[in-house]
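Minutes, project huddle
Topic: does the predicted pose make sense with thiamine diphosphate bound?
PN asked that the exact inputs be recorded in the minutes so nobody has to dig through chat later. Recorded below.
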Amino acid sequence: MTSKQDFSPATLLAVYTLALRIHLVDERFRGLLRSGRLAAVYYSPRGQEILAAAMGVHLNARDYLVTTYRGIHDQLAKGIPLRSLFAEYYGKATGACKGKGGAMHITHPASGVMVTTGVVGSGLPIANGLAWASQLKGEDRVTLCCFGDGASNIGAFHEALNLAALWKLPVIFLCQNNGYGECTPYGKATASARISDRAAAYGPNMRGVTVDGNDPEAMWTASAAAVARARSGEGPTLLEAKTFRFMGHYFGDPGAYIPKAEYDAALAKDPMPATRAAVLASGVSEAELEDLKKQIEADIDDALQFALDSPVPDLDEINRDIYADPTGAPA
Amino acid sequence: MNAPTAATTATKTISFTEAYSRALHDAMEMDPRVIMLGEDIADEEGGGVFKVTKGLSTKFGSRVRTTPISEQAIVGAAVGAALAGLRPVAEIMLMNFITVPMDQIVNHAAKLRFMSGGQTHVPITIRTRTGAGAGTAGQHSDMLEAWFAHVAGMKVVIPSSPADAYGLLLGCIFDEDPCLFIEDAMTRTQTGPEPEKGRIIPLGQANVAREGTDVTVIGYGRPLRDTLVIAEKLAAEGISVEVLDLRTVSPLDTDSILKSVAKTQRAVVVHEAPRSFGAGAEVAARIQEHLYSELKAPVLRVASRDVTVPFAKVLEQEYLYKPSAIEASIRQTLNGKGRR
Ligand SMILES: Cc1ncc(C[n+]2csc(CCOP(=O)(O)OP(=O)(O)O)c2C)c(N)n1
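Predicted holo structure (tokens), as shared on screen:
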């Protein structure tokens, strides 16, 4: 666990390594979709790599994650194996969910990925339950719940924050504020200036913080505080990470509703090249970063090949996992 | 009305409310993973508006928690805690309020086992209460069991006697799947023979509440109690009615339904919920699919009207299924072709 150290060059490299893994996986998926070698709905996390990685380095496999359809960066930051992930996107029997959940419903408890939901805002109440269980059992697990700025306007958000604060649950609500909910900009959907301002409504047990999610050090530091707070039983944090979504809402969305000036300004502050430059400045060589990239690419090649070579699910899978008792399946 | 108590060795009787309470108490005693949450359920808040959870928080401490009025938060927390290995029992005060946490129930509790490929599952019990007859009208009386039976992965239970209520509630709590347990507001003080402590009734199994040979009445919950009284009356006329208590609306025990109807060759389906698109339609369809050529009469349905539950007493009674209609339907199936 890195949370007690300062933001050292080694920590920066750890964050960048995880972010690069996310970045390269995302790039691969977009390439596969563009070339027609994968057919799936896809919500790119492009632009949100650093915030996920800077949180991810503080968590271990016993911690829980609840995320959304745009959650591949969160799942990777949580350590989901690439093979399970790729095979699930391909709807294969070897996928994390045997091809029955798909891109929007990834589950992988072995790495702590407990729920991925396609219903905006619905993960927050579930995250509370996971955190409540840890509290009752006296375990020091942290539950991380990721969602977008748009989700913060759904009723479940407010119900969940109120309950988490009342019960002092070990949960982190990580709002990834990328400025848009589908095609609607933040200002047209959200009355509060900052999402984190809403924490104040839930009393002293709820801490609200806004951070530049594209700044690895700021995000790492804010994450460390939220994780430490949750682990020590001090209560929940509403952590708003400001970021930008470069690839539109879904794969294929050209994002025509985003003003060009806004897009260009965001691109000029793209966190991936900026963080890479910081890593180089900290003393890591180009060659080392190239090696790192090659190693990750090799892992991705392996995962993709595994997915392609894997069988599709047996048709009998449709009768399984409906109820615990397979004979309970409807005729 | 009280159903006649079947011949039994039990001497003591208990009410439905006592049965629910006992089941919750015994479940918490039997298994430390059982936890409870809902509005006003702890003793400081009076042990639940219907007193079903009375005494539990005093005995089991933080395992029983009063919540804010936040139905999505209640069911969501139950789902999450179940994913983490606990056995939460959530109380949704009245069934109409279940419209609020529908997303948590339908999209998450019911589907996570399937969507995760069996890696996770959600063994929660949602207890709720409903039923027309008390003048609570449109937003406090609906029987919505068919909505949930329509979603793969959910189990839906409605007991018709206190002993069954006890055994079936334990069945829900210790079942590995998400269960909706529906308590009938109008029968809560009615009594029946005491259940055997710790006896779990497995879900998905119907019960022959009364054996008969001329016609099968299939149902669950309150109308089943009426049916038993009617069956007794008709027996005096030489009409032998078999009464099949589904106990579990979903999964439906098709085998027991077919076995009984194959014997009697006539069937009447009863429920309190409105008639159209109700569970009775599903039961009737299954009988027809499997036993078409063996039936001596069409399968009839008795249910409540397809309207919003009205307030005025006369209208409310007009809305509700009528015991007299159960009797009339039984006679109608027998008056058809070839009464044996
Ligand atoms: C309850 C619900 N309403 C609407 C949708 C359709 N929808 C999918 S994504 C989305 C936008 C969500 O925006 P935000 O929460 O900011 O997350 P982001 O996509 O930016 O990560 C909407 C409206 C949905 N999936 N669920």
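Observations noted during the meeting:
- Chain A touches chain B through 49 residues (CB under 8 Å).
- The CA atoms of residues 162 and 192 of chain A lie 17 Å apart.
No decisions taken; revisit at the next huddle.
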